[in-house]
Design goal:
Layout (H helix, E strand, L loop, with lengths): L1 H17 L5 E5 L10 E4 L8 E2 L5 E2 H6 L6 H29 L3 E4 L6 E11 L2 E2 L4 E2 L1 E10 L5 E11 L7 H25 L2
Parallel strand pairs: 2-5, 2-6, 3-6
Antiparallel strand pairs: 1-10, 3-4, 6-9, 7-8, 9-10
């Protein structure tokens, strides 16, 4: 039994150390101007600068151009539906998690209110071809804008969903939206709660 425990402890420590933070800080204002803020507005996710595919090096237009002509319209429709679902799920998760911490998040930018601008930088929609799968991966940055329109914080986060378990692109990317909304809420509420 002791031998088993001796082997298990390093593996447990390795697993814990591999669990990094839910976000990476790109930019963070000091001193923290968000302390005590209880109201934020969230904009729809911006996909305009997104790179698509693995490893996320081409534009959406280039990605679509690689599709067979008879697949283009279906792919564009599926991708737009997935973006819509991801945006909806992101906002819902962000609002629900933030509300538990006493922070209100409303939809759409509003004058005089702190704004959360989510921007997808990379997206791999994933696929399941039975003999091979590629997980869905989304990298997103949240830009926190103060009521005067100045960017004060930027945090980057990533969500991944296995394509084998979650077959449809809209399902995988919608779940990524949930995960990213959760992480964004934790970032915003942690900054608002700091003393």
């Amino acid at each position: 039994m002791q031998n088993f425990v001796r082997k298990l402890v390093p593996l447990f420590a390795l697993g814990v150390s591999a669990c990094g933070p839910a976000w990476v800080v790109v930019k963070q204002a000091k001193p923290n101007p968000m302390v005590g803020q209880k109201t934020f507005a969230v904009e729809p996710i911006d996909f305009s600068a997104m790179k698509i595919g693995d490893p996320g090096k081409i534009t959406e237009a280039e990605w679509v151009a690689k599709k067979k002509p008879d697949e283009v319209e279906k792919f564009k429709s599926d991708l737009q539906g997935s973006k819509d679902r991801m945006t909806e799920n992101f906002a819902k998760a962000l609002g629900a998690i933030a509300a538990r911490q006493g922070v209100t998040v409303t939809a759409g930018a509003q004058p005089g209110v702190w704004t959360i601008k989510p921007v997808v930088t990379e997206l791999e929609p994933g696929f399941n071809a039975f003999v091979m799968t590629q997980p869905a991966v989304v990298r997103l940055q949240i830009h926190i804008i103060d009521p005067q329109g100045q960017e004060v914080d930027v945090a980057e986060m990533k969500a991944t969903r296995d394509a084998g378990s979650f077959g449809a692109m809209i399902t995988r990317l919608g779940m990524c939206g949930d995960d990213l909304g959760n992480r964004a809420a934790r970032y915003v509420t942690s900054r608002a709660a700091q003393k």
